[in-house]
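Example 4.3 (complexes with small molecules)
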Amino acid sequence: MATDINKAQFIKDFKDQLYEDFMVKNSDATAEEQFVALAKVIKNYVRPDWFRQKNGIVADKKKTAYYFSIEFLPGKMLQTNLLNLGIYRMVEAALAENGVALNDLVAAERDMALGNGGLGRLAACFMDSLATIGAPGFGNGIRYKYGLFKQKIVNGYQVELPDAWLSSEGNVWETKKPHSAVDVKIYGNVYLEPHDGGVLKPVYENVKTLHAVPYDMPQIGFQNGVVNNLRLWDVEIPEKYELDYPTLADRRRVEDITSVLYPDDSSREGQSLRLIQEYFMVSAGLQTIVKSYAKMGLPMTAIQEKVAVHINDTHPAMAVPELMRILMDDYGVKWSDAWTSTIAVMSYTNHTVLSEALEKWDAALFKEIVPRIHQIVGEIDRQFVAKWASKVDACVVDNTRIIRNGQIHMANLAIIGGHSVNGVAKLHTELLIEDVLKDFYTIFPEKFNNKTNGIVPRRWSQIANPKLSNLIDDLIGKGWRRDIHELKKLENLTSDTAVLAQLDLVKTANKQRLADYAKKMLGIELPVNAIFDVQVKRLHAYKRQLLNVMHIIKLYQDLKANSELELTPRVFIFGAKAAPGYHFAKSVIKIINELAALVNNDAEIGDKLKVVFLENYNVSLAELIIPAADVSEQISTAGKEASGTSNMKFMMNGALTLATLDGANIEIKDAVGEDNIIIFGMDKNAVYDHYQKHDYNARAIYDNNPEIKRVVDAFVDGTIPNIHYEGHEIWDALVSYNDEYFLLEDFDDYVKKQAELATLYANDKQTWQQKALINIANSERFSSDDTIELYAKEIWEIN
Ligand code: 26M
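Answer. The structure with 26M bound is encoded below.
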């Protein structure tokens, strides 16, 4: 075990590695070289456990869960790996003795950002938790050469640059496995030909064959000797099929398949390349899984006893027909047996109720790219309709079948082809059942279940917030680092004024850390005595960054009208990437930046208000920002945010949540009690009421509420300079197009609750910190270790 390594041994290994890779002495090495050497030493330490776990799957015939996801967003791995191996302090000290600051090496690692936001980050938390609970659970995804775009702000606008995260060294954590490569076929024609005994076998013509080569990354459990595997696939041109790709352009088209992560989580991206990515990852993963199951020597029809495959959102939903294909075409299993197994193997998580984000593919395109899969989907659809037509209403069948109006509905495929459908927070699952998927619920009520999201506590407390962690050690001992539920003990300390004062000091220190960063990046001084009010997440209309902006405009206008006004100083902090084609979202970014320039440079405003937009929000920046927050903005239109996970990270770091009753905010409220969260605005029923009655009238609110009118007009009357075009776009969205996300209706209550919390912060810091402590104590409820334990027991039935 790595924990047996002592300092002397470690330093020897480290220096040997520097010598081997770079022929350099430690004293002459760059931080990048030192980082690479350290990562390789760690990889060497975990190799035996990693190898054992991978080989144990077949040898011990262990049931294994495979988490299929088109996104994984782990961020940096160095600190997590050191912590989980139990050698963080030892390595830190050993390096320090040799003149190396571990922090410099941490800074040298690049974020692995193979994800857009919540969905990809959840997948990364789950990988850590699977290993930590000691479950055999492997990830399956794509090794994109370029991750989510790097965001620069130029003249207030978002500019997207490629994220070349793979250095010339590749990814130091990964190991390429050429011997485990498999071939994936796309395009061409396929027809069925009778074989011996009348079995129909597909014959392929003119297919294109892709070579899928896996790269494996160790996923280290928290101090338990378990190392799971995250397998990411890259594409190569198979030597055998070189003639199929004679020109450079042909070869480039192949390379494109794993070249970039789609940066669009706002709506479906109808590119055939995306469809190929999805099939490529699913086929390569499943072929490998079935092959390793075959090695166990058990009957193919019992594969569900050893294999669970999870479909993370609809992107990997072709796993359903692909498993059918492999079982039937490659292993001769008959349809009915293959279907029984497939349903038992597959399970699916839904992450959104937004209809524009539910994947649909043009059936003709689908047929062109994956003709055999198209046949199988056609047959699944035919049998589904045949079975249910006589049992339920025609419109129910119509709403649930896979192929309709020339489109393939991927969610329907995932639901019909699996045994479990889960939402990601209580309210979200209820909405799936009552609304979005209600027809499915009448057919398959037993498939539906809730699994409220969680976050991996190690990264979001110990690593992101060492100061708070040390304080917690002093208060309740170190046991919480292993068992997060021990955080509950903090609740006994909420009347201890000395504790509350210490908590305040920690928060201020974290605010200073962020202020230093803002100073370096933007040249702005942030007053750390101000409330740090933070909204960091993807930019979306439904997440309502614009409501936050309207509140800032209101405060600005109030101050301009009366410079004597008593106002608790505030720093508003934003971080958000907009999908490159999402016009509205990009306009909001421009407006935030112009508003920031206006407010920050107004001498009359001084330190009372500051607005900062921190560019390139990613996991590493989240680790810096979240511990510094006093207020966590979770202000989506009720019913729209499936769960949210940053809400959990903020609470774990002692921010108070200002929230609508949406997603997991509701469960946070249940955990901390109404007094320790600030709730505002319409709940989901009020929102749905408007949908039903069609009675929402934004224009009337605008006309009758002078304050709202003043704020909304600031977008177009020159109050904020340089937003002529964007301002009109926003004004129209709010007034002319009837404010789809109900900002105007929720505005008054939002402003009121904002004022109340500002007063509390100014007048009673102690009560504030008391609430913060209650939030920290109860964040134990949102550990992804517990979430994954439930997936393992209730969905995958693994140990
Ligand atoms: C679709 C088509 C083409 C390219 C990309 C996409 C796409 C990518 C990501 C669509 C959606 C994507 O992610 C959705 C997402 O992140 N959902 C969030 O999932 C979190 C984890 O469950 C929840 O906490 C959030 O509430 C939910 O918005």
